[in-house]
Amino acid sequence: MPSPPRIDPAGRWHWLLALGLALAGWLAWPAAAQQPQLNLPRVQLQAGMHLINAQVANTHQQRAIGLMWRRDMAPNEGMLFVFEQPQRQCFWMQNTYLPLTAAFIEDDGTIVNLADMQPLTTDSHCSAKPVRFVLEMHQGWFAKRGIQAGDRLRGDVFTPR
Questions:
Q1: Torsion of CA 91, 83, 57, 102, to 10 degrees
Q2: Phi/psi of residue 40, each to 5°?
Q3: Nearest to 97 by CA among 124, 72, 74
Q4: pLDDT per residue rounded down to tens, the chain (161 residues)
Q5: With contact defined as beta carbons under 8 Å apart, do 100 and 72 qualify?
Q6: What is the spatial distance between Cα 46 and Cα 66, in angstroms, rounded to a whole number?
């Protein structure tokens, strides 16, 4: 009868260490996820004569966190969500403390529709048609500047018609 395989004690130690690190990372994830994203790449956009300094969220994880956990934001700052292809985009405000307006934007920079969103809610706010871009700004930012659906934003991320 063959003898059972032997486990190298050093191998067992490495396996336990790896398991412990994985568990520690899993337990720390909620704390890390509750940190606002402040160091994303930025892009400058223009809405008429108004300049926007927008953080760019273009990965799944960056888009999932968005502006969650932010307690403040500069007046002309926002976040531009960039998706791989046009589709109906829907946003909510869970864990988001700032009242925001979402602009759903076509590839050429044309605003399809705007949606005011209240903090800490799970109400869904969706694009009226498929889009690749969503720009979140302080609630009322667009209205105060007379910017509405049909207006076009400018910036290097948008494709001219």
A1: -40
A2: -75, 160
A3: 72
A4: 555 545 445 544 444 434 343 444 444 445 455 899 999 999 999 999 999 999 999 999 999 999 999 999 999 999 999 999 999 999 999 999 999 999 999 999 999 999 999 999 999 999 999 999 999 999 999 999 999 999 999 999 998 76
A5: no
A6: 21
What is the 3-state composition of the chain as percent helix, strand, coil, each rounded to the nearest 5? 20, 35, 45
* 3-class DSSP state of 93: coil
User: What is the rounded distance in angstroms from the CA atom of residue 33 to the CA atom of residue 124?
Assistant: 21
Tokens (6 digits) for 137:
């700004």
Judge if pTM exceeds 0.85: no
Kindly report the number of other CB atoms within 10 A of residue 117's CB atom: 19
